[in-house]
UniProtKB/TrEMBL annotation:
InterPro entries: BC10-like, Glyco_trans_14. This is Core-2/I-branching beta-1,6-N-acetylglucosaminyltransferase family protein. Keywords: Glycoprotein, Glycosyltransferase, Membrane, Transferase, Transmembrane, Transmembrane helix. GO terms for cellular component: membrane. One of its GO terms (molecular function) is glycosyltransferase activity. The chain crosses the membrane at residues 21-50. It is found in: Membrane. The keyword Membrane applies. Signal peptide: none annotated. It comes from Hibiscus syriacus (Rose of Sharon). Pfam families: Branch. It is a single-pass type II membrane protein.
Length: 409
């Protein structure tokens, strides 16, 4: 009987312990399930609020994305090395564009981006559909000055631009050590872009050109892009230049097949197979391009590395890269001539430089009207709109001649 009683007590105690442990387990599972349910519900609610753009606590996240492949410029991403997984994080187009991109007029605030790859990326994606982006904008001409330092002929250019606000943009690339700014009343005030050192006869010349083009592309209203130097002067008034450029689909890039040592002799076979001798072209550094070709130039990651690596003196990248690139990708968009006149008649590595005693009405009229060329299928007598290379001491003479010759006030 005692053993039976002890056995019964043992069973009851065992049963009691099992029941307590069961209750604890059930309670723990219940609490864990409730916690999971609260977490899931909270996550779902947060996503719902964000997706609906609640204005109280959870504003809609508006991240910038590259243009869809149906964009007119989507071929740039596929043909020139840009990928959907860009090496830099995307930026907010609606917010950063106000601080990083120049305002619609020439007095806008410029950005401070110094990384060239990031600058090129932004320039390509900021206006993915030019037609839609600029349909309510007045088209502008971007005047891009590649200069060592100051612009000694700036007073002449100011007369050229005067009264045409809203139709042009100005960008200046000059050596970083030149920090002086013109007067706040000048059209060139705060027009310098983030610049880097440039060395003659090196690829840094083209790096500077691409930097200017990329900065100008950030303004969606810019439709035409003119590369100039501090030694350039206008040969006609602003209205003539503006109408000439806005009313044509072609660009003005000197690009010709030069069989001489200064042409074919500079070709490097290490550029094969992407660039052959048949592709090789030479032309003036001082070009004018439309927006489509500008996008091609700054987004090119296929051909430019070849020129940077294999076009070394006596091969000069600035005389061959753009002419060859355009000949390969869009020859139909180019007139194969420049609208900036340069005198190479004396030979040598530099063109003729004009000083005060050389400047006359006869000289400028001969440059303006001494040639015939084709424009939109018609023959024109005015082929050049700009000229170089003019010494700073020519400014006073040019200012005296400007009212009669160019119609400046």
């Amino acid at each position: 009987m005692i053993k039976r009683f002890e056995m019964t007590g043992f069973v009851r105690e065992l049963y009691s312990r099992i029941r307590r442990k069961f209750h604890i387990t059930i309670t723990s599972l219940f609490l864990l399930s409730m916690t999971s349910f609260v977490v899931v519900l909270g996550t779902f609610t947060l996503k719902l609020l964000v997706s609906k753009g609640s204005s109280s606590c959870f504003p809609k996240l508006n991240r910038f994305a590259p243009p869809p492949m149906s964009s007119p410029y989507s071929y740039i991403f596929s043909n020139f090395g840009f990928r959907s997984s860009l090496p830099h994080p995307p930026f907010n187009s609606s917010l950063e564009s106000k601080t990083l991109i120049g305002a619609p007029d020439h007095n806008g605030t410029l950005h401070s981006v110094t990384d060239d790859r990031e600058l090129m990326r932004r320039a390509v994606v900021v206006c993915p559909n030019v037609t839609e982006s600029s349909e309510n904008l007045t088209p502008k001409v971007a005047f891009m000055f590649l200069s060592r330092g100051s612009l000694p002929l700036a007073p002449l250019w100011e007369k050229f631009f005067m009264g045409n606000e809203g139709l042009y943009s100005i960008y200046i690339h000059k050596s970083p050590e030149f920090v002086d700014e013109p007067s706040v009343t000048s059209m060139f005030y705060k027009r310098k872009i983030p610049s880097k050192p440039v060395q003659w006869r090196s690829a840094t010349m083209v790096d500077a050109e691409r930097r200017l083009l990329a900065n100008a592309l950030l303004d969606c209203a810019n439709e035409r892009f003119v590369l100039l130097s501090e030694a350039c002067i206008p040969l006609v008034n602003f209205t003539t230049v503006y109408n000439y450029l806005i009313h044509t689909n072609q660009s003005f890039i000197g690009s010709f097949d030069d069989p001489r040592p200064t042409g074919h002799g500079r070709y490097n076979k290490r550029m094969l197979p992407k660039v052959s001798l048949a592709d090789w072209r030479r032309g003036s550094q001082w070009f004018e391009v439309n927006r489509k070709l500008t996008l091609n130039i700054i987004s090119d990651e296929i051909y430019y590395p070849l020129f940077r690596n294999y076009c070394n003196p006596p091969c000069y990248v600035d005389e061959h890269y753009v002419p060859t690139l355009v000949n390969k990708i869009s020859p139909e968009l180019n007139t194969n001539r420049s609208i900036t006149w340069v005198d190479w008649s004396k030979g040598g590595p530099h063109p003729t430089q004009y000083v005060r005693k050389d400047v006359s009405m006869e000289l400028l009229n001969r440059i303006r009207q001494g040639f015939d060329c084709s424009y939109n299928g018609q023959t024109r007598s005015i082929c050049f709109h700009f000229a170089r290379k003019f010494h700073p001491n020519t400014l006073e003479t040019l200012l005296r001649m400007a009212p009669a010759l160019l119609g400046f006030n």
